[in-house]
Amino acid sequence: MIKLGEFNTLTILRETDPGLYLGDEEENVVLLPHKYKPETFEIGDQITVFIYLDNEERPIATTLEPFLLLNTFGYLHCSDVTQYGAFMDWGLEKQLFVPFKEQARPMKKGNWYIVYLYIDEKTNRLVGSSKTNKFLQNENLTVENFDEVNILVTHITEKGANVIINGIHKGLIYIEDIFEDIRTGDRMKAYIKKIREDNKIDIVLQTPGYKSIEPNANYIREELEAAGGFLPLHDKSEPDVIKNELGMSKKSFKKAIGTLYKDKQIIIKEDGIELIS
């Protein structure tokens, strides 16, 4: 079966004026236009292509790579808005259509949006939606505390950064746990800090809890070595000063220097910490 909105590995059946006809084991056939055909090939070769619909709503193959696949999220640029809806640049010739009813808020030409790609059951067409919450669920969680996960930042508020976790769940990085510049559309590794009783998920960018102590301790030791063995930071330093200097919370800093102190690697003085030679 040739799958719409996904990469398919198909067999080259024949070459014609429009391009190469590709087929699967069930004798389904799709056209790969000449401009996308490989420089060298033989009939019977296999080729991996992305399948979507052309301007006449017919399945068509391309070797271009879209910015998102079926049932996934992407950060897309709005190329145009017409009386029918919005059109997004998703890396292919034909732009992705987002109907007005699927816009979380009215889209504007030139802006960027988090968009989900799905197949409309009524028309069997690939369409986009910026109403991301309806494609996410936290009822049946597939993650646990301290798991490493992949996140997509959806929007920033005064409370923190809202994120999509592994393309399935919703989460939040609280503002006090953000120690680097992150923006809407950023993808990165992160960690489950805490799963609350209502299944809301707290996310951090550093390994949470006791697992972060050793990496932070090593980091501080490296900073001490680079600074000649002394840093003017201690357990009474202001949180903002620690954050600006080391990019970590005061709580993480205190745990880390505690580890270094117990290992007899540093001396904690009134005006800072000193590396023991």
UniProtKB/TrEMBL annotation:
This is GntR family transcriptional regulator. Belongs to the CvfB family. Pfam families: S1_2, WHD_CvfB. Residues 4-63 form the Conserved virulence factor B first S1 domain. Residues 220-275 form the Conserved virulence factor B-like winged helix domain. InterPro entries: CvfB_fam (IPR014464), CvfB_S1_st (IPR039566), CvfB_WH (IPR040764), NA-bd_OB-fold (IPR012340), WH-like_DNA-bd_sf (IPR036388).
